[in-house]
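Module 6 notes. Inverse folding takes a fixed backbone as the condition and produces residue identities as the prediction. Think of it as a translation problem where the source language is geometry and the target language is the twenty amino acids. Below is one complete input and output pair. Work through it position by position during the lab.
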């Protein structure tokens, strides 16, 4: 039985989520505030955390930062904020998914199941391949690559949305916040990341250019810039 933590300042949403997921066979814990969640996380671990963004006091983004300092537990954001910048911010902070309220509980269930499966897969022994996000290392067998901070940030963004096209504008905004979008700089970063991680594309996936849109991480052969 997977242990889930739901954090939301709306008690009705908390109860609806808790009740639904317990009916689906999960063990669900609810916290009414970010502060309560942070306190609980000092002594308890979970398989997935479903986190509201807009809460008084310690908001969801702050809770996610707290979580990422301690663990890689999957985090799913729930929020009324529906702009691309809001979603990108959540993913850049370490979120694994971002859903906009109101949402379908069946879709949330699917996201939770996917996150729990990924966590279980990552926990399984895999000595031949790993990504060390803190040290910015990608390793497969005897091959390894050290990435720059921007290259690792880009890789994490793409890994967070596999098989989804991320626009050039959203990637530039996430990688260079507050600066004008520079597609040439992004193109150069993508080229360098491809070159460094080509040896591991069978495990990571391949970065594909989507003409006129942006970039996608998938298992197919990537086209040139």
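Target side of the pair, the amino acids:
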């Amino acid at each position: 039985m997977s242990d889930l933590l739901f954090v939301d300042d709306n008690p009705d949403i908390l109860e609806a989520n808790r009740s639904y997921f317990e009916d689906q066979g999960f063990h669900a814990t609810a916290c009414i505030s970010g502060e309560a969640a942070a306190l609980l996380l000092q002594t308890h671990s979970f398989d997935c955390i479903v986190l509201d963004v807009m809460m008084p006091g310690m908001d969801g983004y702050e809770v996610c930062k707290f979580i990422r300092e301690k663990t890689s537990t999957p985090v799913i954001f729930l929020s009324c904020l529906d702009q691309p910048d809001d979603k990108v911010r959540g993913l850049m902070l370490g979120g694994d998914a971002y859903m906009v309220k109101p949402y379908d509980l069946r879709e949330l269930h699917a996201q939770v199941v996917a996150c729990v499966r990924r966590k279980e897969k990552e926990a399984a022994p895999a000595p031949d391949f790993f990504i060390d996000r803190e040290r910015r290392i990608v390793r497969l067998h005897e091959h390894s690559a050290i990435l720059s901070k921007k290259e690792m940030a880009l890789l994490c963004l793409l890994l967070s949305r596999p098989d989804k096209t991320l626009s050039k504008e959203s990637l530039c905004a996430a990688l260079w916040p507050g600066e004008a979008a520079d597609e040439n700089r992004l193109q150069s970063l993508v080229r360098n990341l491809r070159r460094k991680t080509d040896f591991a594309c069978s495990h990571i996936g391949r970065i594909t250019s989507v003409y006129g849109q942006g970039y996608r991480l998938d298992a197919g052969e990537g086209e040139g810039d």
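Reference fact for the lab report: Residues 220-225 have pLDDT under 50 and may be disordered.
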